[in-house]
Amino acid sequence: MSGIPKHKVFAYITHGGRLLVFRHPDVPAAGIQVPAGTLEPGEDPAAGVLREAYEETWLSGLQLDCFLGLQIWDMTAYGRAEIHHRHFYHLRCPGRPPAAWRHWETTPSDGSPAPIAFDFFWAPVPAGVPRLIAGHDGLVPELIRVLGL
Length: 149
Fold this sequence. Notes:
The protein is mainly beta.
């Protein structure tokens, strides 16, 4: 593996036994993902995952449950000379969030022109979690263990 190291945070947000995932309606090749983003210089990963989760979903009051693990992911297969150091966290969503919604990301960290539409929906854990793109599902087994499923 060779490339520029990038520190990323990934949010496995759950509510009522479901995991929050999304599609890019304008870029179907982007696949199904979980909220994630790049850490700012010097930013603590736990603070960064809460910031990124809010920016991407617009869900307020998210509660940090636990750190799930670290994943190293080579992005060269996706046309990027980057090595992602991915910090995965479990967050819980309180209250009564919508079943599905569209939100626009206004600060994409990949240099894409903003805004980017995201279509969010909840997937039942474990059987209903779809295949996620580019290793986004790498720590789903750990999430299932933490949830006791």
